[in-house]
Amino acid sequence: MINNKFIYFSIAFSLLIHFTIIFFLTSKTNDKDIYVVNLSEFREFTFSQPSPPKTKIIKDKPLKKIEEKPLEQKKVLNLEKETKKKDELALKKKETEKQIEKIDERIEKIEETKKKQIEKVKTLNNSNEIRQKKIQQQSQKQFSLQKKKSEINNKLLSEYLSFISFEINKMASKSYPIQSIKRREQGTIVSVLTIDKDGKLINVEIKDKAPKRLYKATLKILNLFKFPKPPNDILDKKGYLRIKIPVNFIIK
Fold first, then answer.
1. Which of 33, 81, 141, 174 has its CA 20 to 30 A from that of 18?
2. What is the average per-residue pLDDT within 73-102?
C-alpha cells in the first residue's frame, strides 16, 4: 500500500511540474506579440511580406531526338551478324577440312612410296637370295665337279705313272750294268721327267748322279723308252706333264 501511494504522489508531482513549465512558456510568447502603436501617426498597418525571390527562367534546350531503331531492325542486324559469323566459321571449317584432306593425301602418297620401296627391297633381297642360292649351288656343283675331276685325274695320273714306272723298272732289271753287278752296286735313281701331249720326252732332271754306272744306265733307259700319250686331263695349261719316277737297281 505504501508503494502505491508513493507512485500516485510521484505522478501528481510530475504533472504539476509540467503544467508550470507550459504556463511559463506561454506567458513569454504573449509578451512578445504585444505591439505599441502611436495613435497620432496612425496608419493602416499591414504586414509586409517579403517578396518572393526572382526565379530565373531557364529555357529548356531542345532535346536531341534520339532516333530509336525499332526492335525488328535490331533483330535483323543481330541475325545478319550471326549468319555472317556462321558463314565465316563454315568457310574456316571447309578450309581446314581441305587442308586436312591434302595432308591425308600426302601421307597416303608417302606411305605408298614407302610400301613400294619396301617391296622393291624385298624383291631385291629375294633376288639376291635367289642369286646367292644359285651361286652357292653352282659353286657346290663346281666344287663337286672339281672334286670328281681331281679324283679322276688322280686316278688317271696314278695309272699312267704306275704303268710307266713298271715298264721302266722292268727295262732297268734287264739292262743292269755287268760291272755294277760284279761290284755289287745297287740303288735308286730318282728322275723328274717332262713329257708333252704326244708322249715325247722333253727334259730329264736327276739330282743324285751316283753311282755313275747306274746314272748312265737310267739315262739310256729313259731315252730308249717310248712313253704313251698322257691323257689331256692331266696336262697343265701349256700341254705338258711333269712326273717323278724312281728307277730301282736291285741285285737279286
1. 33
2. 79
Residue 43 included in any domain: no
Indicate the number of domains in the chain.
1
Decide: helix, strand or coil at residue 28. helix
In a domain, 36, yes or no: no
Q: How far apart are CA 32 and CA 90, in angstroms?
A: 93
Residue 14 forms part of a structural domain? no
Query: Domain of 112?
Result: 77-252
CB burial string 119-158: b at 16+ within 10 A, e below: eeeeeeeeeeeeeeeeeeeeeeeeeeeeeeeeeeeeeebe
pTM as predicted: 0.43
Which residue, among 205, 235, 234, has the nearest Cα to 219 in the 3D structure? 205
Cell, residue 203 = 727334259
Query: To the nearest whole number, what is the mean pLDDT of the chain?
Result: 78
Residue 110, domain member (yes or no) = yes
Helix (H) or strand (E) holding 245: strand 240-249
Rounded-to-integer distance, Cα 80 and Cα 135, Å: 81
pLDDT of 187 > 80? The answer is: yes
Number of Cβ within 10 Å of residue 7's Cβ equals 10
CATH number, domain of 104, equals 3.30.2420.10
- Smallest CA-to-CA distance from 234 within 154, 175, 124, 164 is with 154
Q: Percentage helix, strand, coil, to 5, in the chain?
A: 60, 10, 30
Q: How far lies 163's CA from each of 118, 134, 210, 212, in Å?
A: 65, 42, 26, 26
